[in-house]
Amino acid sequence: MNETFISYSHRDSKFVRRIVNALNDAGINTWFEMEDIRPTTQWKQEILLGVQTCHNFVFIISPDSIASSYCEMELNYALLHNKRLIPVLYKHAEGIPSALQEPSWIFFHNFSQGMEDLLLVIESPFGISLGSRLDSSLVIETQGAYRRSFFLYRNHYVVGRNPKGKIGNTGIILINDKYVSRSHLELKLDRGQWNAVDCYSRNGCSINGSRLQEGQRRSLRHGDSIMLSQITKLIYEEIPSDN
Q: Which residue, 141, 177, 137, is CA-closest to 154?
């Protein structure tokens, strides 16, 4: 599980590298573009999936990051999935989005003190927010070699190759597989029970080997395996309440 995603401008790479190294030394697993983008992958989907799988979303504030369309895209995805936003002020900037103005900033006038404050926030409980529910998670496996897992913070997700979601309403899960439909599957939480609903997908999907009919809803249980294609599998997992 990637715990902390770092959103930053490449022009601030030297400063960000110091933070990433310090977090790694402290045992914090980070998602850092310079290290986590694999060769030959579609970098945009890889970045957005990195946002989905993180616990914490650290945004490095500077004039360059505020002006970056890529940083804006990452921030919107963090909002879409209700990640905990942790703004780090590197350089003063104009036009900071309101979403970054609400949480308390971490200042790095002194690097050691800044890192101490950042670690304190990252290692603290999530607190009360839309993104604090930890009742279920999903694992994505592709041909047994590619594996990503993340918590289901939202009440509704659309799964597919190019699904559409609205910030603050529907979460989206990107699957980079040509045999997966644009909107392939929906995951819905209803009365405390997660359900899978086929979105009239092109190739259909099955749960534990049983085909899910078009538009059909089926309740999910711990360990259920959802096949979207021959190479892409989702594994639904329930998290005990005492966790």
A: 137
Closest CA to 212 of 183, 184, 192, 176: 184
Phi and psi, residue 93, nearest 5°: -145, 155
- In one-letter notation, the amino acid at residue 127 is G
Contact 6, 58 (CB under 8 A): yes
Q: Torsion over CA of 78, 226, 190 and 135, rounded to 10 degrees?
A: -60
- Report whether 232 contacts 178 (CB < 8 A): no
Q: Tell me the angle at which helices 13-25 and 111-122 cross, rounded to the nearest 10 degrees.
A: 60
Taking only the tens place, the pLDDT of each residue in 190-222 is: 888 999 999 888 888 999 999 988 888 999 999
Backbone angles phi, psi at 45, to 5 degrees: -65, -35
pLDDT band at 37 (very low <50, low <70, confident <90, very high): very low
Residue 200 to residue 198: CA distance in whole angstroms: 6
- Segment 60-77, tens digit of pLDDT: 999 999 999 989 999 988
